[in-house]
Design goal:
This protein is mainly beta. The chain has helices at about 15-20, 85-95, 185-195, 435-445, and strands spanning about 70, 75-80, 100-105, 120-125, 125-130, 145-150, 175, 180, 210-215, 225-230, 240-245, 270, 280-285, 300, 310-320, 330-340, 355-365, 370-375, 380-385, 390, 395-400, 410-415, 430-435, 450, 455-460, 465-470, 475. The chain starts with 13 loop residues before the first helix and ends with a strand.
């Protein structure tokens, strides 16, 4: 509350709050504002007062009045005013978390102070608005599918209220989706409500004072709601009645394991490959394997099953295997779906919990890049000891692959000394490998080969077509 004269009024409710707390209720209180002069804009009485949507508060500290908000299920509609600033709205958003959505309505009332003269929900999908304080065309997007009922002008009071608007007429009381309590004098509004399909209204309270107390005992939107209605007549006679309302979820969230992904029988669609139990293959070593990739997908809730009677959690757990004959790597993704309004592992660990496995194969379609280099050829000279000409040539190769580390690439060298294809190694005379890059360097140093008096040399490098080298004399390797 941003007004100093009402700073202590909340303490009048302290006995009731303590009683609820003792019975197990959660007690939460917003930050108590200091209400220093710094909170109020000193220039408001001047230029700022003439601008629409500008109020006397600044953002010195979070302040808000509960009467600037109205809740419809998990959606809360509110407004900025002389008692609610942006910091107050942000505090409420963070405190309530993702379970609730706060939608702000821009008030056109320069004296905005509580939303009950601007915006009044009447029934599911129906809201009554004051066309002078809010633009019907600029309501939050969530209201596009609602019936927007524009209130007729109110019958003014004979004595103009000092602290409220004549539009207090739309501050009505709904008894249920059809019956509504309206001031007897507001004939235009009563006639409009009749046209809109509302059945009843109260013409007069006959001097009686009544109160309605609601005890909401539901969990996950299901359970009991008690409405305690008390009335005191002119003769001080008290009458009390209790209305008990049972809320039952006749269509709880359900995942059918027999007819997988048939929307007629299930409220959840599993991602690609789950129902058919076939792997989903994606190309590219750096491919996106997150559930946001539409090629893989994630479980989708359908049939509006994520309602107030469900609390659904969807998680996935990945196991990655890198040794696969037909893929770079394979992912076993286990999807777990839990409706916490049904699931209790201590009572029945199977009810309200569903699991499925999705197999993902990541395949590399790009071939390794292999490079073969022929180094300088040393001129052959006569070796007096051997009696033949001897020379050296340097042959090297390298390879890279997007999906394969260097130590996972294997090299193989084969030499056909006479190019006659009659060697002992499948037609080759000499063979080195298969070896990794580091092992290959060591093997070549330990096992050098010298070939004498040959004019033609055939060398095969793994993944490379055979290379024919022609020498005038002899070559040594």
């Amino acid at each position: 509350m941003a007004t100093r004269d009402r700073y202590f009024e909340c303490f009048a409710y302290r006995p009731i709050i303590k009683e609820y707390f003792i019975q197990g209720a959660k007690w939460t209180a917003a930050p108590k504002p200091q209400l220093l002069d710094t909170l109020f804009d000193k220039e408001y009485k001047g230029i700022l007062k003439k601008k629409k949507g500008v109020f006397c508060l600044n953002e010195f500290e979070p302040v808000f009045d509960a009467a600037d908000f109205v809740r419809c299920g998990r959606d809360i509609f509110g407004q900025l005013s002389h008692t609610t600033n942006t910091m107050g709205v942000n505090w409420l958003r963070r405190h309530l978390g993702e379970k609730y959505n706060i939608h702000l309505i821009k008030s056109l009332d320069p004296k905005a102070w509580h939303i009950d003269t601007t915006f009044m929900p009447l029934a599911p999908g129906k809201v009554l608005i004051n066309p002078e304080f809010v633009n019907p065309k600029k309501l939050p997007a969530i209201l596009k599918k609602w019936d927007i009922l524009i209130s007729p002008k109110p019958i003014p009071y004979k004595v103009k209220p000092k602290v409220m608007s004549n539009w207090i007429s739309i501050n009505t009381l709904m008894l249920d989706e059809k019956r509504i309590i309206v001031e007897k004098r507001q004939k235009p509004l009563i006639n409009a409500l009749k046209k809109w399909g509302f059945d009843g209204y109260v013409l007069s309270n006959c001097g009686a004072n009544y109160t309605i107390t609601v005890n909401d005992l539901r969990e996950c939107g299901q359970g009991v709601i008690q409405r305690i209605i008390s009335a005191q007549g002119p003769n001080n006679l008290n009458i009390t009645a209790i209305q008990t309302i049972w809320v039952v979820d006749c269509d709880p969230f359900y995942v059918d394991d027999v007819t997988c992904n048939d929307p007629r029988f299930t409220d959840l669609l599993w991602p690609n490959g789950v129902c058919t139990q076939t792997p989903v293959t994606i190309d590219g070593c750096g491919a996106d394997i997150s559930p946001d990739n539409p090629q893989l997908g994630k479980p989708t809730i359908i049939n509006n099953a994520d309602d107030n009677c469900a609390l659904i959690s969807i998680e996935h757990f990945d196991e990655i295997f890198t040794i696969e004959p037909d893929a770079c790597f394979k992912v076993l993704r286990k999807w777990v779906v839990i409706d916490w309004c049904q699931y209790d592992p201590f009572i029945d660990p199977t009810k309200g919990r569903w699991e499925r496995v999705q197999i993902i194969k990541v395949r590399d379609q790009d071939k390794p890049v292999v490079t073969c280099n022929v180094g300088p050829c040393e001129p052959a000279t006569i070796n007096a000891k051997l009696g033949v000409c001897v020379g050296h040539i340097s042959l090297t190769s390298s390879a890279t692959d997007k999906c394969t580390p260097e130590d996972w690439l294997f090299y193989e060298y084969k030499i056909d000394a006479c190019n006659d294809k009659v060697g002992v190694h499948g037609g080759w005379d000499f063979r080195v490998g298969s070896l990794t890059k580091s092992n290959m360097r060591r093997e070549i140093l330990l096992n050098s080969v010298t070939i004498h008096s040959q004019t033609i040399l055939r060398i095969h490098l793994m993944q490379v077509e055979p290379i024919l080298l022609v020498f005038t004399e002899s070559a040594g390797l």
